[in-house]
Design a protein that fits this description.
alpha+beta, binds zinc ion
Length: 388
C-alpha cells in the first residue's frame, strides 16, 4: 500500500511540477502551448466562515507547496480567522502560516474531494489575499471540460453537436488560461464564464464528446481563441464588436444560420414603466413621455438604444440594456417594443448574444449529418482547428 501510494504521489507531483502550479501566481503569460498537462484554475468560492472538506476515499492530503503531502482523516474542518486585517486559515485549531495550501481527496490522481456538497477532481487550493480567502479547483483541462459541458448543452443532443461544444469550450478555457481573470484563477465556475459543477455534473455522453476531441481547439496562428457560443442566434450570428465593442479576430464575421431561419424562437416580455425607469436609472418620473431610438447593426439586431425622457438623454448598448432589464427577460438583441399606458411590451426572436456558435444551429447541422469540424468551420469562419 505504501509503495503504491509513493508511486502515485510521484505521479501527482510530476503533474503539479510540470505545470508550475506551486509557483503561482507566476504563471507565464507570454506563451502556454495548449498542453493536456497544464491544469486549469477555476474559482469556486470565497469563504468567510468555517467549512468542512471531505474525502469520499480513505484520507485527505494537504500540501503547502513544498512537495510534502501530509495525510489527514476523511474530514477536515477549516476555520477562517481575521487577525489585524489579515485572513488566516486554522486546521484542528492550528494556524497555517502559509498563504496557501492544496487539498486533495486521496492518493490517486483521479481521487475526488468533496466541498460544499460537490465532488471535484484534481486539488482544491485555499489561498489568502489580504483579508479575503479564495478556493479554486486546480485540475487537468480535460477533466474540467467533463464537469462543465452538460451545463452548457444537453447531454441528450447529437454527438457531433456535443463534440463541437467540447472544442468551443476547450478553446475558451485555453484562452482564459493564457489571459487569466485574476492572478489566483483563470475562470469562475458560473455564467460569467462557463458553468462548472464538478464530477456530479458529468454525463457519460458528454465525457465521450470530450474524449473524442481530446486536445482539439480553435485557434488563429496556433493561439487558442476565446470561442463564444450562445443558445439561438435568431437567423444570423453577430460580431463581438457590435455586441461588446470588442475587437476579436475570431468573431468579426456574421453567418446566416439555416436552422434558426426555419425555426424562429419567439419571446415576449412586459416591463412596468416604474420598473423600466428604475432599471435604466432614469431620474425623471415614469409618467413623463419618452422615446426609445434604436441604432441597428447590419444583422438587424439592436446595437444600442438612446432613451429620451424629459431632460434626460442617454445612450446604452443593447447588451447593457439587456443586462439592466435581465438577460432572461430580454432574451436577445433582436427585438421590437410597444409602449402602453403602464408598461412597455417587448417582442423578440433568438436567445443569447449571438456571437460565435449557435448551439441550436449546431444541433440542426448535426441532425443533417454534418461533423463537428464542419459545424465549427461554419460558425467560426477564419478560425482553424488544431489537433494535439
Ligand atoms: Zn442559429
Amino acid at each position: 500500500m505504501l509503495k503504491r501510494t509513493g508511486f502515485l504521489l510521484t505521479f501527482w507531483l510530476g503533474w503539479f511540477g510540470s505545470s508550475a502550479v506551486f509557483g503561482l501566481p507566476s504563471r507565464p503569460v507570454e506563451k502556454i502551448s495548449p498542453n493536456l498537462n497544464t491544469p486549469v484554475r477555476v474559482l469556486l468560492d470565497r469563504p468567510t466562515s468555517a467549512l468542512t472538506v471531505h474525502s469520499p476515499h480513505l484520507a485527505l492530503y494537504l500540501s503547502t507547496g513544498n512537495s510534502i503531502w501530509k495525510r489527514f482523516g476523511k474530514e477536515l474542518r477549516i476555520e477562517v480567522i481575521q487577525r489585524a486585517g489579515q485572513a488566516e486559515f486554522k486546521i484542528h485549531n492550528r494556524r497555517i502560516p502559509e498563504k496557501f495550501f492544496y487539498l486533495r481527496g486521496g492518493a490517486l490522481a483521479s481521487d475526488q474531494v468533496l466541498y460544499r456538497g460537490r465532488k471535484y477532481r484534481g486539488a482544491l487550493r485555499f489561498s489568502i489575499r489580504g483579508n479575503s480567502t479564495w478556493v479554486t479547483n486546480v485540475l487537468p483541462l480535460e477533466d474540467y471540460l467533463q464537469g462543465m459541458l452538460a451545463s452548457e448543452m444537453s447531454p441528450n443532443w447529437e454527438k457531433e453537436a456535443l463534440r463541437a461544444q467540447a472544442v468551443a469550450a476547450r478553446s475558451y478555457a485555453l484562452y482564459m488560461m493564457r489571459h487569466p481573470k485574476d492572478p489566483l484563477f483563470d475562470m469562475e465556475d458560473g455564467i460569467q464564464d462557463q458553468v462548472y459543477g464538478g464530477v456530479l455534473a458529468e454525463d457519460p455522453r458528454v465525457n465521450q464528446a470530450v474524449q473524442d476531441t481530446t486536445g482539439t481547439y480553435l485557434g488563429i496562428q496556433n493561439d487558442p481563441v476565446k470561442a463564444y457560443f450562445h443558445s439561438r442566434c435568431g437567423g444570423i450570428t453577430e460580431t463581438a464588436q457590435s455586441v461588446w465593442k470588442y475587437q476579436a479576430t475570431a468573431h468579426r464575421y456574421r453567418v446566416h444560420c439555416p436552422y434558426c431561419q426555419k425555426n424562429k424562437f419567439q419571446w415576449q416580455a412586459s416591463v412596468g414603466l416604474p420598473e423600466f425607469f428604475k432599471a435604466l436609472r432614469l431620474s425623471v418620473s415614469p409618467s413623463i413621455p419618452f422615446r426609445l431610438l434604436p441604432q441597428v447593426s447590419p444583422s438587424g439586431r439592436i446595437a444600442s438604444l438612446t432613451i429620451e425622457a424629459g431632460t434626460e438623454n442617454k445612450t446604452i448598448s443593447s447588451d447593457q440594456f439587456r443586462s439592466l432589464l435581465g438577460y432572461t427577460r430580454i432574451k436577445s438583441a433582436f427585438f421590437d417594443w410597444r409602449v402602453g399606458k403602464e408598461s412597455i411590451h417587448f417582442e423578440g426572436t433568438g436567445s443569447g448574444h449571438g456571437v460565435g456558435m449557435c448551439q441550436w444551429g449546431a444541433r440542426g447541422f448535426a441532425r443533417e449529418g454534418k461533423t463537428y469540424r464542419e459545424i465549427l468551420a461554419y460558425y467560426y469562419p477564419g478560425v482553424l482547428l488544431y489537433n494535439p
